[in-house]
C-alpha cells in the first residue's frame, strides 16, 4: 500500500477515526486513500481554522484525538489560532500537514514555507515523515504523543504519501497519567486542615469530571477550605447534583478580590493563575504576596485520583454540598444578556453540550444554567477568538446524540463563520445563538481598562460593527443553515425551543443592541 | 508622548499612512493613539487574513507599504497565509504585532505565544521593541526594511505602547534598487544576439511597468528572442499599446512545452521557474536540461533599467510589437467561464484594477482582456488561496479613483469572506464576480494530475461544495454589500455594467455550474 493508505489505517487502528480536513494538491493521495479506509470519517471544512477548532471540540468531548488535514504552511497558519486554544486546553490532536514532495523542497516553489517552525509554536511533538516505510510508525507515535503532550504535528511530504512500500503500524502504549505520591497527599492534607485561609483551584481533568468535583466538595465540606474553578476550563461538568463552583473572574480587580486573604492556594488540575493581560499599575497575577502555592496535581496528571485520596485523608466521611435542581423562569419583554441567559437556562435540555464564546454577552449565563440538568460546558481556553463555532462542530461530531448549544459573540463569529456550512453539510444538531450587540464590546471594556480611554471617535469606530450591521440570518442561510432573529425574550424562547426540537443545525440571532 | 503615538507618527512621516487593523486588548493604546495622529487611516477588518491581504494589494498598487495591526501570535497566525502571498510577491509591508507587556511575558498567560518564531517564517526583518525610547527608531527601520526585504514585523509590547518617553523618529534613507553592471548587460546582449533559441522570462518590476515590457519587446523585435511572462506576476500592466505577453503555463506539461528547445533562459525580474507542485514521474521544473539560465535581473533589482540598457545595446532602433485595441463582443446565452471572460473583456473600463483569483474559472480571462483598455492585473503569487477579496480591498484603498474588479473562485472566497464587510464599511468601488462552480474544481484537476484519480465517492465528496450550495448573494447581503446572481451571459453583462456604474461595492454571482 502507499504511504497515505498506511497512514490512515494506522490512525484508525490507534482510535483516530475522524479527520477534519481542508486539503490541497499535496494532500490528494490522502484524499484518494479515504476510499480505501472507510473507517476514517473525513469532515470537510472550508477554512483550516474550522478544522483545527473542530478537532479541539471533538477531543474535549470524545476524550481521544481527531486528526486534521492541512495544506502546507499557509494551511497550518490558517489553523494556528485554534491550535493555540487547543494547546492551552491541553487537547490531544494530531495534525497531518501535507508538504511538497521531498525532491521539490529544495526548489523553493511558490508554496514553500517553514512548516516545521510554524508547527513548533503550538505542538508538543513535530515530525517530518522521511519515507513511506516510516510514515505508519510516525503516525502511531503522533497519536501516542498527542495523548501525552497535546498537539502532535506530522508533516507529510506528497511523495511519501503516494509512494508504495508502506505498511500499517500498531498503536503504541500510552502510560496512564501519573498519580500523586502518598507523601504529597499527606502534605496537602496538612495544608487544608491547617485552619488557615485556603483555596483549592480546580481545573483540567477535575473540572471535566463529576467525580473530581465531588471529591473536591468533600474536602471543602470536611475542612472549610474554599473551592474556586480556573477562569477558562476546557471542559466543565455542570448541573444539579454537582457542587456550585465559581470561576476565578477574568477582570484583574475581581480576581484579586476573589483570592484576597488566601494564605494557601492548592492547585488541582490547574496552574497558578495569572491575569489574561497586563494593565498599567496592576500586578500580573491575582495571588496575594503572602500566599503559598501548593501543587496537588498539574494539568496532565491525575487530579481526580489525587482529590479522592485527599478527601479520604483530610475529610473522611464528609458529605459534599451539591446543588438542587433549579431552573430560571422564562423571561419576557426586552432582550438583554441576562434575559438571553435565562432563556438558555430555562430551555437547557438534558445532557446538552454548551459551547461558550459569548464573551461580554455571557453575563448571567453560567449562573442561570448551573443548577439545571446535567450538561458539559466548553470554554475558550487560549483567548484566540473564533473557537466557538468550530468547537461546536467537533462536539456534535463526537456526540451525535447530544444536543449542542453554541452561545456565540458576533465579532468572534466572523473569524470562522464558514463553520456554519460544515454544520449544514454534516446536519449537525447544533443550536447557535448569535449575540448580536453590534460591537467588539469586550474591546470597549479593554480600551477603558488599559487606561487608553479616549472619547476619540476614530478609536471608537475601530470597535464598532454596525457600519454596516452584520445580518447573521442572511449569512447562515447563505450557508444552508435555517436562521431567525429574536428581538424579544419571548421570540428567543420560541425560536430556541424550535431549534432544539428539530434535527440539524439552526442559528438564532439574539438582538442585544 | 507614549510609544503608540510616536510609532504612528513615525510611520506616517515615513509614508505609511494606512493601517489594516484587527486589534485586541494589547493594541488598545495604538487604537487610542489614532485620534492623536489623524493622518493615519485605520481600516477595520473582521479577520486578520483580510488585513494582511489588503496590505498586500495596497502596496502592489500604491508602491509603498501599508501597516497591519495584529493581536499576538494567534492574530499573526490568522494573517499568515496572505503574508505568505505577500512574501512571494515581494510586497513591502509593515506588520505591527501587539504582545503582552514586558513584565507579563514570563507569566505564560493564556495568550502567550511565540510571535517571533511565527513572524520569522514570512518576514525579512523582525524586531521586538524593548522600550518606548526605541519604538520610533524601530518603526523607521521597519519601513526601510520593508522597502528593501518585503515584510518587516515589529513586535510591540503593550507597555512599550502605553509608557511615556517616546519621540517620533525621522524616516531612514532607502537605497535605490541596484542597476545591472554594464559588463552584465554586454554578456546578455551576446546571448540574445547569438541566434540560439532564447527566451527572456519577465517578472516582478518588469511586468508591472509598461516601460519594462516595451523595452523587452524592443529586444524581441530586434533579435528574435521570445518573451514569456512568469506564471503569477504580482502586478502586470496590460492592455492595448503593450506587447502581447503570455505567461508560462501552470500545468507542468504545458510549461515544459512552452520552454521546449530553449537553449538560453534570461531572467528579467524573475527567478528560474519551478513547477508549483511535484507530480509522480515528472521533473520539478520546466527548464530543459541543456538550457543555460542567465540572470539579467532578479526580483528586487532594477529590471526595467536593465532591459532598457539591453535594448539599446542588442536591438538599437527596433520597434516593439504591441497590441492594437480589441475587445470581445458581448456574449449571449449560457454562462460558462469563457462567456464570463468575454463579459469582463467587453465591459472592462479604462484604468481598472483586476484582482484575479478565478483559478479554474479563469479560462479565457487573460486572453479576452489583454488588448482592452489599459489596466493593472494582480495575481495570487504564493498559492495560498483567499488572497483575492482582501487584495481588492487594499487596491481600492490605494486607488480610490480607479474601478476594481475582482474575479473570485467560490471555494477560495470562503477563506476571507468577511472582506466584504470591510468593502461595505469603506464603500470601496469594487465589483466582485464570484465564479460559482460549486466545487474545489482545481483540486479535482489535481486529484487526477497527481495520479491519485479514483472513482471513490468519498474522495470526490471532499472536493464538492454543493452539499449545501453556497449562496453568495445571501452572504454578501449579510455583510451589507448589494448582490445579484447571473444565470446567463446577458444577465451577467447587465449586472456587471450596473455594478461598475454605481459607486460602492457590488457582488455579482456568476452561475458556472
Automatic annotation (TrEMBL), chains A, B:
<dbReference type="GO" id="GO:0000287">
    <property type="term" value="F:magnesium ion binding"/>
</dbReference>
<dbReference type="InterPro" id="IPR012001">
    <property type="entry name" value="Thiamin_PyroP_enz_TPP-bd_dom"/>
</dbReference>
<dbReference type="GO" id="GO:0050660">
    <property type="term" value="F:flavin adenine dinucleotide binding"/>
</dbReference>
<feature type="domain" description="Thiamine pyrophosphate enzyme N-terminal TPP-binding">
    <location>
        <begin position="1"/>
        <end position="106"/>
    </location>
</feature>
<dbReference type="InterPro" id="IPR011766">
    <property type="entry name" value="TPP_enzyme_TPP-bd"/>
</dbReference>
<dbReference type="GO" id="GO:0030976">
    <property type="term" value="F:thiamine pyrophosphate binding"/>
</dbReference>
<dbReference type="InterPro" id="IPR029061">
    <property type="entry name" value="THDP-binding"/>
</dbReference>
<dbReference type="Pfam" id="PF02775">
    <property type="entry name" value="TPP_enzyme_C"/>
</dbReference>
<dbReference type="GO" id="GO:0003984">
    <property type="term" value="F:acetolactate synthase activity"/>
</dbReference>
<dbReference type="Pfam" id="PF02776">
    <property type="entry name" value="TPP_enzyme_N"/>
</dbReference>
<dbReference type="InterPro" id="IPR045229">
    <property type="entry name" value="TPP_enz"/>
</dbReference>
<comment type="similarity">
    <text>Belongs to the TPP enzyme family.</text>
</comment>
<feature type="domain" description="Thiamine pyrophosphate enzyme TPP-binding">
    <location>
        <begin position="369"/>
        <end position="509"/>
    </location>
</feature>
<protein>
    <submittedName>
        <fullName>Acetolactate synthase-1/2/3 large subunit</fullName>
    </submittedName>
</protein>
<keyword id="KW-0786">Thiamine pyrophosphate</keyword>
Amino acid at each position: 500500500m502507499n504511504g497515505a493508505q498506511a497512514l490512515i489505517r494506522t490512525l484508525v487502528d490507534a482510535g483516530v477515526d475522524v479527520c477534519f480536513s481542508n486539503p490541497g494538491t499535496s494532500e490528494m493521495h490522502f484524499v484518494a486513500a479515504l476510499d480505501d479506509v472507510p473507517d476514517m470519517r473525513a469532515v470537510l471544512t472550508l477554512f483550516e481554522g474550522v478544522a483545527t477548532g473542530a478537532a479541539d471540540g471533538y477531543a474535549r468531548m470524545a476524550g481521544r484525538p481527531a486528526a486534521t488535514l492541512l495544506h502546507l504552511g499557509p494551511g497550518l497558519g490558517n489553523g494556528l489560532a485554534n491550535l493555540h486554544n487547543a494547546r492551552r486546553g491541553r487537547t490531544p490532536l494530531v495534525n497531518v500537514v501535507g508538504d511538497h514532495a521531498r525532491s521539490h523542497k529544495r526548489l523553493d516553489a511558490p508554496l514553500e514555507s517553514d512548516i516545521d517552525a510554524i508547527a513548533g509554536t503550538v505542538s508538543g511533538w513535530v515530525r517530518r515523515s522521511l519515507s513511506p516505510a516510516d510514515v505508519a510508525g510516525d503516525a502511531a507515535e503522533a497519536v501516542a504523543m498527542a495523548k501525552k503532550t497535546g498537539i502532535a504535528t506530522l508533516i507529510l511530504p506528497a511523495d511519501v504519501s503516494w509512494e508504495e512500500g508502506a505498511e500499517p503500524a500498531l498503536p503504541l502504549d500510552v502510560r496512564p497519567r501519573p498519580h500523586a505520591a502518598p507523601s504529597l497527599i499527606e502534605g496537602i492534607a496538612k495544608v487544608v486542615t491547617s485552619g488557615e485561609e485556603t483555596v483549592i483551584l480546580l481545573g483540567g481533568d477535575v473540572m471535566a469530571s463529576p467525580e473530581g468535583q465531588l471529591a473536591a466538595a468533600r474536602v471543602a465540606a470536611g475542612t472549610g477550605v474554599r473551592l474556586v474553578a480556573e477562569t477558562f476550563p476546557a471542559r466543565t461538568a455542570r448541573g444539579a447534583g454537582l457542587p456550585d463552583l465559581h470561576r476565578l473572574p477574568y477582570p484583574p480587580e475581581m480576581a484579586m478580590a476573589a483570592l484576597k486573604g488566601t494564605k494557601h492556594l492548592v492547585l488541582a488540575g490547574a496552574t497558578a493563575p495569572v491575569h489574561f493581560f497586563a494593565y498599567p499599575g496592576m500586578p500580573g497575577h491575582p495571588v496575594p504576596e503572602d500566599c503559598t502555592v501548593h501543587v496537588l496535581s498539574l494539568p496532565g496528571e491525575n487530579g481526580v485520583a489525587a482529590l479522592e485520596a485527599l478527601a479520604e485523608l483530610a475529610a473522611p466521611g464528609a458529605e459534599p454540598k451539591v446543588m438542587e435542581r433549579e431552573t430560571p423562569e422564562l423571561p419576557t419583554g426586552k432582550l438583554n444578556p441576562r434575559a438571553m441567559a435565562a432563556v438558555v437556562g430555562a430551555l437547557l435540555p438534558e445532557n446538552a453540550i454548551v459551547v461558550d464564546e459569548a464573551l461580554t454577552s455571557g453575563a448571567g449565563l453560567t449562573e442561570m444554567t448551573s443548577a439545571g440538568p446535567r450538561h458539559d460546558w466548553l470554554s475558550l481556553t487560549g483567548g484566540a477568538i473564533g473557537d466557538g463555532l468550530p468547537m461546536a462542530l467537533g462536539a456534535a461530531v463526537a456526540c451525535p446524540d447530544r444536543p449542542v448549544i453554541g452561545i456565540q459573540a458576533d465579532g468572534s463569529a466572523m473569524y470562522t463563520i464558514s463553520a456554519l456550512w460544515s454544520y449544514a453539510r454534516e446536519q449537525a444538531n447544533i443550536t447557535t445563538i448569535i449575540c448580536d450587540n453590534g460591537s467588539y464590546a469586550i474591546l470597549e471594556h479593554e480600551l477603558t481598562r488599559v487606561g487608553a480611554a479616549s472619547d476619540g471617535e476614530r478609536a471608537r469606530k475601530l470597535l464598532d460593527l454596525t457600519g454596516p450591521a452584520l445580518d447573521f440570518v442572511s449569512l447562515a442561510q447563505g450557508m444552508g443553515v435555517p436562521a431567525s432573529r429574536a428581538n424579544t425574550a419571548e421570540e428567543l424562547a420560541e425560536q430556541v425551543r424550535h431549534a432544539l426540537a428539530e434535527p440539524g443545525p439552526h442559528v438564532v440571532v439574539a438582538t442585544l443592541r
